[in-house]
Specification:
Order of helices and strands: HHEHEHEHEHEHEHEHEHEEHEHEEE
Protein name: Leucine-rich repeat, cysteine-containing subtype
Largest sheet: 14 strands, mixed
Shape: globular
Distance between the termini: 52 Å
Strand order of the largest sheet: 1-2-3-4-5-6-7-8-9-10-11-12-14-13
Pfam family, one: DUF7885
GO biological process, one term: SCF-dependent proteasomal ubiquitin-dependent protein catabolic process
Domain F-box/LRR-repeat protein 15-like leucin rich repeat: 111-248
Structural class: alpha/beta
Strand content: 5-15%
Number of helices: 12
Radius of gyration: 24 Å
Length: 364
């Protein structure tokens, strides 16, 4: 009979709810756990208490994921134990109140000090997710960028402590391909730093949902991004209007664009994305309630459009939808609100057949 591995031990531990029973099981299986972790390459753990034995026994680990609070002590242990890390996923699943972020053992969630220790020891990191870590600021992320020069993915969503000064350093990166800044306090100045530095030649995906401090000047600077294929600007507040979206039309490389819930964009249409400039294959306009029939019909004959989301866009008619679907040869999916103008199609109508291709119609 083969000895229990790490996964099996963790499953058993997860089924034990009594604190004292957990402690007893942990003590009994400690040695087995250490042996099981020697060849461990990836770890997704929801029980930080186990880390003090798992990490020192896992020198070959390349991917570490934890969505719970971690103290600086655990970050230091991670740095000492796993120098070969390539992928660090620390995005937290709960909203931390910076005034109530005390860890169960009386310690706080890690801050810049804890992050600096890890990135200085693990300089070969390629992908890092710090989303929701409220105590991470400019100093920690700057250390990450300086130590890990091969970084390709960085998620700072919800990191409310970072400032525009950090974006000046981010803009100097030659390696980043995917940058997530959802909910960050980035301003037009920070966006200009990103768009005018070395990053303009390599960044492919930029996600800035809920960044409501940006406006025309910042958006216009994105025209300098030479490799940008995926842009997310959903829920970016009242400063993003038609003129800002029109400024994006010169980004010919864009394939995916998310403009959902831009409530002050008067009538977004494909005139902002015409075939002489960018030709995105995926367009998300969910929640753009001012979209009219004119705006929707302008998507007709779009050469590359495959996916179009119009959830919560009520001011369009089924006739307009049929016109767009029948003329966009590449379209495979369209999402619609059940409250669009009449006449509505018969209930349950969720497929259409045009140009020898089926289109999926999803109602919400």
């Amino acid at each position: 009979m083969e000895p229990l591995g790490y996964d099996e031990l963790l499953l058993i531990y997860d089924k034990i709810h009594n604190v004292h029973d957990r402690k007893s099981f942990y003590q009994a299986s400690k040695q087995i756990l250490k042996v099981a972790c020697i060849h461990l390459r990836e770890l997704d753990i929801g029980f930080p208490d186990l880390l003090k034995d798992v990490l020192p026994s896992s020198p070959n680990m390349v991917k570490f994921k934890c969505n719970k609070r971690l103290s600086n002590t655990y970050m230091e242990l991670l740095a000492r134990s796993c120098p070969n890390l390539r992928d660090l996923r620390l995005g937290i699943e709960e909203d931390l109140d910076p005034h109530k972020a005390a860890y169960e053992l009386g310690e706080f969630d890690f801050n810049d000090d804890g992050l600096c220790v890890v990135v200085n020891a693990c300089s070969r990191l390629n992908e890092v997710d710090l989303s929701g870590r409220l105590h991470v600021g400019d100093v920690g992320v700057a250390s990450l960028l300086q130590s890990c020069t091969g970084l390709t993915y960085l998620n700072l969503s919800g990191c409310a402590s970072i400032t525009d000064e950090l974006f000046k350093l981010i803009g100097k990166s030659w390696s980043l391909r995917h940058l997530c800044l959802g909910g960050c306090m980035v301003s037009d100045l920070g966006l200009e730093y990103i768009a005018k530095g070395n990053l303009r030649t390599c960044l492919q995906k930029l996600h800035m949902d809920k960044c409501d401090n940006i406006s025309k000047n910042g958006i216009s600077s994105l025209k300098q991004m030479k490799e940008l294929t995926d842009l997310k600007l959903s829920n970016c507040g009242v400063n993003i209007t038609d003129s800002e979206i029109l400024a994006l039309s010169s980004i010919k490389t864009l394939e995916y664009i998310n403009l959902s819930w831009l409530i002050d964009a008067a009538n977004i249409s494909s005139s902002h994305m015409d075939s002489s400039s960018m030709e995105p294959s995926v367009v998300n306009l969910a929640g753009c309630k001012t979209l009219t029939s004119v705006g929707l019909c302008s998507f007709a004959h779009h050469p590359r459009l495959k996916y179009l989301s119009l959830f919560s866009c009520h001011d369009v008619s089924w006739k307009d939808v049929e016109y767009v679907v029948s003329t966009c040869k590449s379209l495979v999916y369209i999402g619609l609100s059940r409250r669009i103008k009449t006449p509505m199609p018969k209930e349950g109508f969720n497929m259409s057949y045009y140009h020898h291709n089926w289109r999926t119609i999803f109602w919400k």
